[in-house]
Amino acid sequence: MASGSFRNGGPKLTSKLDRQPSSAAYSTPKPSSKSRPSAAPASRRGGSVAPAAAHSASKAGGDAGVPGRVRVAVRLRPRNAEEMIADADFADCVELQPELKRLKLRKNNWESETYEFDEVLTEFASQKRVYEVVAKPVVESVLEGYNGTVMAYGQTGTGKTFTLGRLGEEDTAARGIMVRAMEDILGDMSPETDSVSVSYLQLYMESIQDLLVPANDNIAIVEDPKTGDVSLPGVTTVELRDQKSFMELLRLGEAHRFAANTKLNTESSRSHAILIVNVKRSVKGRHDADQSFHGENGTSSTMVTSFRPPIVRKSKLVVVDLAGSERIDKSGSEGHTLEEAKSINLSLSALGKCINALAENSPHVPVRDSKLTRLLRDSFGGSARTSLVVTIGPSPRHRGETSSTIMFGQRAMKVENMVKLKEEFDYKSLCRRLDIELDKLIAENERQRKDFEDEIERIRTEADSRIAEAERSYTNALENERLKCQQDYMDSIKKLEEKWMSDVEKARAEHQDACLEKECNKEAPTSSSDEIAEVRQLLESEKLMRQSSEDEVSNLKSEVSHWKNLEAAGNAEIMKLRKMLDSEANQKQKLEEEIAILKSQLLQLSLQADETRRSLDRGGSGKVLTGFDSLVSQARHSQLRDSANGPKASIAKLFEQVGLQKILSLLESEDPDVRVHAVKVVANLAAEEANQEKIVEAGGLTSLLMLLRSSEDETIRRVAAGAIANLAMNETNQELIMAQGGITLLSITAADAEDPQTLRMVAGAIANLCGNDKLQMRLSGEGGIKALLGMVRCGHPDVLAQVARGIANFAKCESRASTQGNKAGVSLLIEDGALPWIVKNANHEASPIRRHIELALCHLAQHEVNAKDMIREGALWELVRISRDCSREDIRMLAHRTLISSPTFQAELRRLRIEF
Ligand code: ADP
Ligand code: MG
């Protein structure tokens, strides 16, 4: 049977294509809240199950992850002069079918294996086409704010540097990916708001050297424990404005690389060259509708609403020219000592191991094993968009190397990344704008106050002068009137006196005359009575005059009261003016309060800006801190100390500030919201290996198990199960979980839950427990295996993958125990009824599920006691299939060996006349 017909070809190939349509292969991600349920992106790697809150610490927004696979292209180098002669009589070891995106690797004249790539680039592919296919989509997504990586992998001499690093000075069509990428980036920048900076380094024997300033050697990698961002503070970063300076920089880097390698007596093929391009762009016109600043009482101040911090997107393009993939002979035949050989191989083989682990969905990805994998942790299985070009040569003499390069590419195609947008508010520029605006307001306020005071002064003087005038005229009129009345009165009194005197005189004379006449003539009585009538008349007129003068006095009195009224009206006007004055003073006070609020907001924003900048300085761009920045940061340093409660205190900070004990106590809070938040925080902490011991010591495990038992809330149970799954990654914790009855609780949760994400967490936790040798009997005895099997009812592939992983773990431990003589009798898996499900899913279309089950079957088959049951349930057929078709050589061989060495299987195969 020609084995080539099945491996990556035929029917399986089609089903693989169905799941990964290559038409969407290189599209730019558009973050969308619908793109994926928030619990899912955390991890698709076996045991490391992190809950939804893991991604909640977004900055300005747009942080939702978009899933994307690592895209892999293969490029064939044309035969070189030496190969033309040496291989003249032989065919190339590969045959390309670019239109089908397939590559055939010849085994001999009759057999070949077919592999599928995202893109197959023949020996005639132009540099322009290679750039467009491999790197351009990554560059475009970097310009949109996502991190991106482009790397070349392949044997020395197959064209990695040709593909990435050619400057194309003599022939412009020969420009490689680095030069073309920078052209596109610089062409898309707006000089006023955006910036680009570049670092160039090499990694050789686990030491990082700055290619721009080669004296910077042995540079340390710094990882931000909170964000996981990797940075190289010791590396030179040069800000660029034009392509010419970039070309100079590349030339300089190449010269330094050459000199350094000559000095160290190493070949450049043994070092990795890494170009890092940092892009910072400001985003305009977004977020305006939904964001405004609010005054203290929640109402937005009219003067403040127009201030929103501009948003900047920071992204990074990393281009990696990897060391030659051919292995160094450890015997040192190339002139290396054994230690050197180990160290030279370390980074590249660590990269291979990480990719294997990610492709296999393994719970542990050994990123920390080498500098290269630490630097690239974001590029594989992280949040960057990644493109890999694997370069191969045509020579049949290097078939082995070519084959392993192709396999590396194939595995990398299975790695999934979650690309994320990194946006943050530009508080610095908002601060500047607010400063200017505040100054304007202060000046305007000062001007208004001056105008206002002038106006008050004018009104007051005018009122004073009017009052004085009214008073004056009133006093004058009163005085005149008084004098006139007095005069009239005196005159009339005088007249009366005169009149009275003359009357008295007259009466006296007449009396004397009458007496004389009486004496002489004793007659004339009529004249005296006339006289009396006259006096009476006089008295009458006197009365009238007095009456008229009395009227005059009363007139004058009423005039006085009129003037008094006038005076009162004047006083009322003064009162009114005073009131106006008071209200103006109030207004002024309000304005001053508003200024105070603005000032305090400005201060708060400065603090936030500082904090942001501090974290940027820590995780950021090497030596680009400008003089201005450092001055500002010094000036504000003292304020920072008081600002312990930044609005975006991350969970880790919370952990430090609040204390674990306090967080754990919140798990028992009365308030369900508090409980949900607390359990999310604990789950986040539990996802970090460093915290796990502390959480368990502080009783966190017990509290989480309690929650699983007692909580009615699905979210709490899901997140708690996720946290337990994370804690269950370590052996001591696994035993503690068992000791505290955890498996029973997990089984109950497994039986009750319907949400696939909850089931995934629970299955992940049990799967981790299954990997512990000491817990086998108890796991099975307390219903753990049955609980796992019960969860397959949900049918969700992520749940099935965890179940399969658990079964594989269990089978492996059991097999080990049997081999060591610690276990006898039929497998507990078979006793618990797992075999029918195992057999039914052994050829599952999802490769993680299939791999785990295939492994489990091989482990079970190794022990003769299980053979009869396995034959009865049809497992023998699956084993035969695995031994022939499994694409993993180790599993294939294991199945083959197992079948050959089992007398029961052999007998059955003979009985069925199957040749084996
Ligand atoms: P690597 O970096 O993988 O060691 P190089 O890029 O240095 O390989 O390529 C080795 C040689 O092959 C160089 O002389 C290069 O010019 C040539 N070469 C590589 N790829 C091609 C190609 N696609 N077309 C023509 N020549 C190529
Ligand atoms: Mg090279």
TrEMBL record:
Keywords: ATP-binding, Coiled coil, Cytoplasm, Cytoskeleton, Microtubule, Motor protein, Nucleotide-binding, Repeat. Residues 431-480, 539-608 form a coiled coil. Residues 69-415 form the Kinesin motor domain. InterPro entries: ARM-like, ARM-type_fold, Armadillo, KIF11-like, Kinesin_motor_CS, Kinesin_motor_dom, Kinesin_motor_dom_sf, P-loop_NTPase. Residues 1-66 are annotated as: Disordered. The keyword Cell membrane does not apply. One of its GO terms (cellular component) is mitotic spindle. One of its GO terms (molecular function) is plus-end-directed microtubule motor activity. It comes from the Eukaryota. The keyword Transferase does not apply. CDD domains: KISc (cd00106). Residues 29-66 have a biased composition (Low complexity). It is found in: Cytoplasm, Cytoskeleton. ATP binds at residues 154-161. SUPFAM superfamilies: ARM repeat (SSF48371), P-loop containing nucleoside triphosphate hydrolases (SSF52540). One of its GO terms (biological process) is mitotic spindle assembly. PROSITE patterns: ARM_REPEAT, KINESIN_MOTOR_1, KINESIN_MOTOR_2. Gene3D superfamilies: Kinesin motor domain, Leucine-rich Repeat Variant. ARM repeats lie at residues 658-700, 699-742. Belongs to the TRAFAC class myosin-kinesin ATPase superfamily. Kinesin family. Ungrouped subfamily. This is Kinesin-like protein.
